[in-house]
Every structure is written in C-alpha cells, then in structure tokens.
Amino acid sequence: MSEEKEYTFVVGIFGSNYEERNLIGQALGAPGTKTDFQIFERYDVNLGYIFTALTPVDYPEKIKPFLQCLRISDVHILVINLESGLSAETGEILVGMDLMNELFGTKALLVISGITTKTEWKLSEMRKKIKNILKTISLKETEILELRNKEDYNNLKKKIIEVGLNHLKTEKKEKFYLKILIDHVFPVKGIGTVILGMVKEGQVNAGQMVEIQGYEGAAKKVIVRSIQRHDRDFKYASKGDRVGLALKGNITPKEISRDNIIVSPGQFTQEKEIKANIYINTFYKPKEGVIKPSDTMQFYGIVELKTSPLLKIWTCMDIRPSSSG
Predict the structure, then answer these.
(1) From residue 153, how far is each of 147, 148, 313 by CA, in Å?
(2) Last residue of a domain, one of 170, 200, 235
(3) Which of 3, 32, 33, 170 is 20 to 30 A (C-alpha) from 277?
(4) Distances (CA, A) of 215 to 140, 202, 211, 219, 254
(5) Model's pTM, two decimal places?
(6) How far apart are CA 322 and CA 100, in angstroms?
(7) Same structural domain for residues 113 and 218?
(8) pLDDT value of position 301
(9) Is the pLDDT at 316 greater than 60, yes or no?
(10) Claim to verify: residue 221 and residue 157 sit in the same structural domain
(11) Same-domain check for residues 62 and 165
C-alpha cells in the first residue's frame, strides 16, 4: 500500500465542440467514467504530476453538467475553434469561468484550435477579439495558446502545471474540516456503496466516520471502509485528490447524488432561510434595470453541485454591478 503524496491538477475543459475537448482530455489522461460528463485521469511520469480532466458531454444542450464541471475543477480551459469562431457558448463559458475566478480564485487558459493553412489568416484577428473580451472581466491576464501539433499538447500540460501551482499558492488557507464533492455513486458487489468525488477541503482517513449532508432531514452518518486514489488503495486522501470511497453503513447508492456532500461530523447545519445581498453580473441586463419580486423569471441558487429554485420572497435588495464590471 503506497502512501506517497502526488499532486493532482483538476482541469475543466469547455467549448462548443465535444470532439476537440475530448482530444485535449485524452492528451491529459486515459478516459474513465462517462455519464453526463467525461473524466480523464493519468499520472504523467515525465512531468511528475497527476492530471484529472472533466468535460460536460452534452454541453451546450445541457447547462447543469457544465456548471458542475466548473465547480469541481481548479483550472479551466476554453477551446475556441478558429474556423467556427466565437459563439454564444463562448460568452456563456467565459461568464462561468469569470465567476469561478472571482469566487474561488480558479485559473484559466484559452486554446485556439482548428488552425490550418486555410484558416491561419484569421488567427491574428481572433487573438485581438479574445483579448478585447478578456479586458472586460477578471481574466485579463489569461494566456492564449495555439493547438497545431503534438508538441502543443505537451506545452499545454506544462502551462496547466504553471497556472495550477499558481492557484495553489494564492488559494485561501486550507480549512480543517473535511468536504468532498460527489460526482458518481454506484454499488460494488461484496463491497457495498462506493462514491467517486473530489476532496475540496481537509483530509479523509480509512475507518473515519463522516456525515453525508444535503437531505431535507438529518444528515446520514457512515464509515469510510476504504479509500482509492488512481485505482490504488490508500489509508488517506487530502485536498486536491479525486477519490473512490467505499462506505460502510445503512445507506444505498439510491440515497446519494451530487446534491450531497461528505463532511466532518458536526461542521454543517441546515438553514431554511438565507439572507444575502444580490449582485448582478455585468453581462446581465434586467429589462427594467432591476430585479423585482414581480418578475416572472425563475431564478436558481447553486451550492457546490446542487441547483435549487429560489422562492421570490424578497423584502430588501442590494443590487450593484459585479466587481468585474
């Protein structure tokens, strides 16, 4: 049983074209679990780091997996095809990446693909357009890379390491409680319920009691029977690791979803009402300049990977442009 610590870069790959995203994912790791998003994972022997990449399979048709991949990952890559050009999806992805950068300090990279002898004449103008867009958001210093050949994919991996290590340096101080975001759950014969997820805070140990939060009722307590990282058994996993946890307790896979999080006992409590100031993103323009309780539009709140409709019971509103505006 190996216990060495290997740092993992968790990368979200976004863009209009799934096949191009898939190629980048395969450059980073071997294809693994595939549901509404595809996961790639590999320990790169030459570079000495682990890459875990995620991309939403059905985007842009479905937005929820896109939002979940954004939250799970720490480095975001936007792929723009030179032939197809900029699109509505480009703007939507940039808004999401901008928000994650402001909230969690995530890092971003832009990649231009589809560069051929027939399209190369567009490259200079495309770079200019992208830079002008980036000036309006928090991602002003984002680097723009070009994908032409195998060596460019290797350079992309090195750049991911560079910005990923920068994210690690600028991250807020690590919290002492455990928090794991769950992305998949399934039964394993002879073992029981197994979850796959990302350790976002703290450390989890084999034999430890944890709580599964996110239910209307009380949290469910279970024991972590065993831990796997990269298909190997470990006694522990810590912040930044993607894990498989075998759970021991009175719980089935049907009772767990991405709405749940695994946490240290006693650290989280449920609240029926949340009071918060509302900030309007600089790109969102309400019809009358303000959002009112009488508006017919349905709004949603996102907490970790869970999305819930918001009740429009507002007694006070503090509406301002976002800090990037």
Answers:
(1) 7, 8, 50
(2) 170
(3) 170
(4) 40, 22, 11, 6, 13
(5) 0.91
(6) 13
(7) no
(8) 84
(9) no
(10) no
(11) yes
Same domain, 47 and 145: yes
- Look at strands 300-303 and 209-213 and give their pairing: unpaired
What is the tens place of the pLDDT at every residue in 175-227?
789 999 999 999 999 999 999 999 999 999 999 999 999 998 889 999 999 99
Total count of domains within the chain: 3
Longest dimension (CA), the chain: 62
d(CA 51, CA 42): 6
Let me know: does 268 contact 201? Beta carbons within 8 Å: no
CATH label of the domain that carries residue 19: 3.40.50.300
Residues 14 and 136 in one domain: yes
In a domain, residue 132? The reply is yes
| Residue carrying the six token digits 């980073």 | 28
Q: Are 154 and 143 in contact (CB under 8 A)?
A: no
Do the bridges between strand 75-81 and strand 8-15 make them parallel or antiparallel, or are there none, so unpaired? parallel
Q: Are 250 and 293 in contact (CB under 8 A)?
A: no
Do 186 and 258 lie in a common domain? yes
Q: Which domain covers residue 94, as residue numbers?
A: 8-170
When mean pLDDT is compared across 4-13, 129-138, 248-257, the lowest value belongs to: 4-13
pLDDT at 310 over 80: no
Higher pLDDT, 149 or 292: 149
